[in-house]
Amino acid sequence: MKRVILGIVFIILTFISVTFAVSAILLNSNKILNSFSIISVDNASNVYSVNFEKVKTAEYYDVLVYNEKNIPIYSKSIYKNNIQMTLDNIEYDSKYKIVIYAYNKLGDSIGVHNPYVFTYTEPTFDLNNSLVLKDNEDYKLQIKGKLNKKDYIIRIL
After folding, report:
1. Are strands 82-86 and 72-78 parallel, antiparallel or unpaired?
2. What share of the chain is helix, strand, coil (3-state, %, to 5)?
3. Is the Cα torsion angle 14, 17, 19, 25 positive or negative in sign?
4. I need a surface site. Which of 15, 78, 133, 140 has the fewest CB within 10 A?
5. How confident is the model over 1-52, as pLDDT tens digits?
6. Closest C-alpha to 131, from 156, 114, 112, 148
């Protein structure tokens, strides 16, 4: 009989403790940050459009771009789950990483689940990564090789 009573008391205590734990989680659920991911990254020229999952409890997001030496080259705080950023100071054939942090009301943060890593290999017209031809400069198109074959080089000077 004592075993049955101890079993019932144990079940009741377990039920009460689980009820308190679930209640505490539900009451604080508006403060807990959930994991999130980058959905897409598109670029046109040096303008990058980044879309990521919305974090229900996030007050704002910090978007950072790091170079291959882990030095931040771009930083901005935003309040929505997408951003268009112009990265004028990136260099050809260098690696970069886009990281996003979500912050809640308490100042707690969580980083994006899948930071976006890319190598900048867009074609440019000069050493400063400019994709725009300017009116006040003269350009010369130089083609080396035979155009009827596939061994030619096109240079803009």
Report:
1. unpaired
2. 20, 40, 45
3. negative
4. 140
5. 778 887 888 888 888 887 776 665 555 555 568 889 999 999 887 789 999 9
6. 156
Residue keyed to tokens 């950023």: 85
Residue with tokens 């997408």: 82
Tell me which residue has tokens 């400069």: 137
Please write down the long-range contacts of 49-52, taking CB distance under 8 Å and 24 or more positions apart. Answer: 49/82, 49/83, 49/84, 50/82, 50/83, 50/84, 50/85, 50/98, 50/100, 50/116, 51/81, 51/82, 52/81, 52/82, 52/100, 52/112
Answer yes or no: are the C-beta atoms of 85 and 48 closer than 8 Å: yes
Give CA–CA dist 42/93, Å, rounded: 18
pLDDT (tens digit per residue) in 39-61: 999 988 778 999 999 998 899 99
102 CA to centre of own chain? 11
Tell me the average pLDDT across 90-105: 90
d(CA 29, CA 109) in angstroms, rounded, equals: 15
Q: Which two tokens stand for residue 151?
A: 């061994």
